[in-house]
């Protein structure tokens, strides 16, 4: 069992008849998914070796130990691939892995707590932070220096300047007071 698991990809389907799998890699360079050593599949306690064999339409094609045919590959669709955090290279000062940010409290520049980081997405136009607010709603914040001026892993918080279209409850309350 991994002590500090980090998800590095997800199996999106089978490729061919010989047990090859297509995966979406979550690593900086997609083909690096094979360089961190054995992986543990979601829901398993054992590690498996993998070997990247090709690229295909935004995904990688690889073989994972113990998967020999299409049926075995199909059975793994949707499973996440994990490695232990210790297998990842260390980061320079001021850099971090997205996994380090998930769950961190997010504060607005005035100190008000907005919620916590739920996920980080990249739809092609740059990273976006999905902040799950305390009221259950979500706010998508561009992951830029202007919108996210401070990330303090040691303090365990992120400071954001929310998009102009976003208003907090305190802003709405002030507006309502002024309407009287």
Report the CATH C-level class of the largest domain. Answer: Mainly Beta
Give the overall shape. Answer: elongated
Given the structure, what is the number of helices? 3
- Which band does the percent of strand residues land in? 35-45%
End-to-end separation in angstroms reads: 60 Å
Structural class by SSE content = mainly beta
Total E-strand runs: 13
CATH topology of the largest domain: Elongation Factor Tu (Ef-tu), domain 3
Largest sheet: 7 strands, antiparallel
| Helix content percent band | 10-25%
- The average pLDDT score comes to 86
List keywords for this structure.
seven-stranded antiparallel sheet; single chain; mainly beta; 11% helix; Elongation Factor Tu (Ef-tu), domain 3; SH3 type barrels; 3 helices; 2 domains; six-stranded mixed sheet; 180 residues
């Amino acid at each position: 069992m991994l002590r500090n698991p980090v998800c590095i990809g997800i199996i999106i389907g089978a490729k061919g008849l010989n047990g090859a799998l297509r995966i979406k890699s979550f690593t900086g360079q997609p083909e690096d998914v094979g360089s961190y050593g054995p992986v543990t599949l979601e829901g398993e306690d054992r590690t498996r070796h993998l070997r990247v064999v090709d690229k295909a339409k935004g995904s990688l094609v690889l073989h994972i130990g113990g998967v020999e045919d299409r049926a075995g590959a199909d059975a793994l669709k949707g499973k996440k691939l994990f490695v232990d955090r210790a297998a990842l290279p260390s980061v320079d000062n001021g850099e971090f892995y997205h996994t380090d940010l998930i769950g961190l409290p997010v504060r607005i520049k005035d100190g008000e707590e907005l919620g916590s980081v739920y996920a980080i997405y990249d739809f092609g136009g740059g990273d976006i932070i999905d902040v799950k607010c305390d009221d259950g709603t979500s706010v998508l914040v561009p992951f830029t220096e202007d919108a996210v001026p401070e990330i303090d892993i040691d303090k365990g918080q992120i400071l954001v300047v929310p998009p102009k279209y976003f208003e907090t409850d305190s802003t709405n309350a002030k507006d309502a007071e002024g309407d009287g």
